[in-house]
Amino acid sequence: MTDSPLFKFTWFSDLPLALKELSNIAMDKPDEWDYKNTPTGGYPILYNYIHHTSDCLKT
């Protein structure tokens, strides 16, 4: 995961906590950042959104 383009621009001491805090800011329902059919208990949709957005920034 640390080879993600996201980590070329940022550093997180606690990525899961950062995603949780960001999800609380971004949506009224933080659980909407998880998969509906196979929930992970995390924020995979939010992580992927940030990952792909940071990938676009490198170009």
Describe the structure.
The protein has 59 residues and is an all-alpha fold. It has one domain (6-57). It has three helices and no strands. The longest helix has 14 residues, at 44-57. The relative contact order is 0.22. The model has no long low-confidence stretch (mean pLDDT 81).
Q: Tell me what portion of residues adopts beta-strand conformation.
A: under 5%
Q: How many strands in all?
A: 0
Q: What's the quaternary structure here?
A: single chain
* Radius of gyration, CA atoms, in whole angstroms: 12 Å
Give the class from helix and strand content and strand pairing.
Answer: mainly alpha
Calculate the mean pLDDT score and round it. Answer: 81
Shape: globular
Largest sheet: none
Structural domains: how many: 1
**Helix and strand pattern:** HHH
- CA-CA gap between termini: 20 Å
* Helix fraction bin: 40-55%
Identify low-pLDDT runs. Answer: none
